[in-house]
Write the structure tokens for this entry.
Amino acid sequence: MSVVESRSPQSPADVVASVPAAGAEGVAGAVRRARAAQGAWAGANAAERGAALGRAADAVAGAAGELAALVVREVGKPVTEAKGEVARAVAILRYHAQQVFDPVGAVHEPSVSGLSYTRRRPRGVAGLITPWNFPLAIPLWKAAPALAFGNAVVLKPAPQAVACALHLAELLALPDDLFQVVPGGAEEGTALVDAADVVSFTGSAAVGRKVAVAAASRGVQAQAEMGGQNAAIVLDDANLEAAAAQIAAAAFGYAGQKCTATKRVITVGNAAEVRDALAAAVSKLAVGDPSDPGTAVGPLIGQAARDRVLSAAAGGRVLAGGEALDRDGWFAAPTLVDGVPGDHVLACDEVFGPICLVQDAGSVEEALALANGVRYGLVSAVYTRDLDRALEVSGRLDTGLVKVNSPTSGVDFYLPFGGEKDSSYGPREQGKAAQEFYTSVRTVTLAPAGS
Ligand code: NAD
């Protein structure tokens, strides 16, 4: 039996977890048990399901300190952000604990007599496949609505974050088999897509596409949230200091390892000023030990991720950073690059780490062409004091989220979340949008006897 092992990125000799992989049979067994448990859970009334989610929120809140420390240790997230993630996990659970009371259908005029109504029903077993970078929030923003509407959950977390997922399952303390974690990698992920009744995936575009195809071939609903190559456009009337501080934090906070991280800065007739303001903002970011509350930029998740950042930097003109830190762990300095050819990886793809490309446009039109001219479409930002230009640019950006004078990073759990093009497949997640995904609609026609 193979083993799933996670190691601390700031101290790779530290083995955080070492657990047996579930294997394909283990996943199939977990789905069978989940299916057996799901009927009673769906049959429980809404108040009971909400109360269980409320108790789970209390348990997560009660363990906030230890959970944040585990997130820091296992995935190298700076502690201030790790505490924020725990708080978000609690808020997600509380929100969906109340969502159980939302309407589950609508009443319509009958065609003859009686009434017609729709009623949402759970889909069954939700198979969730998640990345390592938000090891609590992403599993929960999928699991909480799935559970709220009467589904059972089988979670296949990223191997790098397996300890967080297992600890979360213990804390949630839901009825037996309702929330199971299956440790593993691609084999277990594939097995889960082959058995679940609905599939929600977050991770890279390459894997997400495979998951979507496999689910569709079984006729099973799927959503996949994938990468981003998010642009921040800085117009010439922007508040430069504020914009640069936000962009630096969005590009390099948590070492740029967020799907919503700023990956490209597009200047519009202000190339030199933006570079100066960015360099000043980047120099203020504290890089180092993620357990230090002052740290903004911790390590990358592993050696391969760091190698990819350093080799991408080598292909351009390095304005800041561009090297590994001389210390234990997978650290790289926040890296700003410009002057890359159009087919360079930074211009065409997501590099998941602390690296950001500066591109120059001569006009707003050119800036929009650069921003939209990539395969991804998750989030973009525009910095300006001019409302007309803000409205025009935000209306023409080809992304699922647009931020005006706000960082690309940061997602509100109660709003629909998702992107365009290669960033997303299927319906939006989070907030009210989640109800549609985790339920299907039954249409009932009710007529008086003998009518
Ligand atoms: P990944 O695609 O390597 O892995 C994601 C999950 O898929 C893991 O649990 C992994 O074990 C599993 N998996 C791998 N191969 C599989 C297969 N063939 N079938 C089924 N499952 C399989 O991604 P990662 O490195 O864990 O995460 C980083 C990526 O996630 C980045 O691209 C980032 O942009 C993206 N991300 C997107 C969002 C979003 O909401 N859009 C949020 C966070 C991260």
